[in-house]
């Protein structure tokens, strides 16, 4: 290679998130960072997770079109991120559920027009 530069091809698996008109890739490094942040929340909150279950902890802007939300699932009391576990808010009580707990309880998106 001229000038001593070598091109390095990186192959990573990524998750594609579809927004209104675009596809955006979320890379594994992002997932590892979110796992680390979730672990920090668990250590920071400790036993207060029971008191705070169902609430949003933090919102972040991943890019111009994607928002990330850290929350505590009302059912399983696990700290979750909407891009990893999914996110569903119950319409009547405004409690937040991860995707698997919402599916088990039969909670559906309230964004459907009647």
Number of self-contained structural domains: 1
Count the E strands.
7
Overall SS class: alpha+beta
Mean pLDDT reading: 76
Unreliable sequence segments = 4-15
Strand line-up across the major sheet: 3-4-5
Radius of gyration: 18 Å
**Terminus-to-terminus distance:** 63 Å
- Oligomeric state, counting identical vs distinct chains: single chain
Tally of helical segments: 3
Please indicate the percent range of residues in DSSP E strands (runs of 2 or more).
15-25%
Describe the main β-sheet briefly.
Answer: 3 strands, antiparallel
**Fraction of residues in H or I helices:** 25-40%
Q: How would you describe the shape? A: globular
The H/E string reads EEHHEEEEEH
Describe what this molecule looks like in 3D.
It is a single chain. Helix content is 25%, strand content 24%. It is α+β, with helices and mostly antiparallel strands and 114 residues long. It has one domain (12-105). The strands form 3 sheets. Strands 3-4-5 form a 3-stranded antiparallel beta sheet, with helices on one face. Strands 1-2 form a two-stranded antiparallel ribbon. Strands 6-7 form a two-stranded antiparallel ribbon. The longest helix is centred in the first third of the chain and has 18 residues, at 28-45. The protein is globular and about 35 Å long. The N and C termini lie far apart (63 Å).
Summarize the structure.
The protein has 114 residues and is an alpha+beta fold.
Outline the secondary-structure elements.
Elements: E1 15-18, E2 23-26, H1 28-45, H2 49-52, E3 56-61, E4 67-72, E5 79-81, E6 88-89, E7 96-97, H3 99-105
């Amino acid at each position: 290679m001229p000038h001593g530069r070598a091109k390095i091809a990186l192959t990573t698996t990524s998750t594609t998130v579809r927004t209104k008109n675009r596809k955006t890739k979320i890379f594994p490094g992002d997932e590892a960072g979110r796992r680390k942040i979730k672990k920090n929340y668990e250590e920071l909150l400790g036993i207060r997770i029971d008191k705070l279950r169902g609430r949003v902890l933090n919102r972040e802007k991943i890019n111009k079109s994607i928002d990330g939300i850290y929350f505590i699932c009302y059912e399983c009391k696990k700290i979750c991120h909407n891009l990893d576990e999914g996110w569903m808010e119950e319409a009547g009580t405004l409690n937040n559920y991860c995707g698997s707990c919402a599916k088990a309880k039969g909670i559906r998106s309230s964004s459907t027009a009647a």
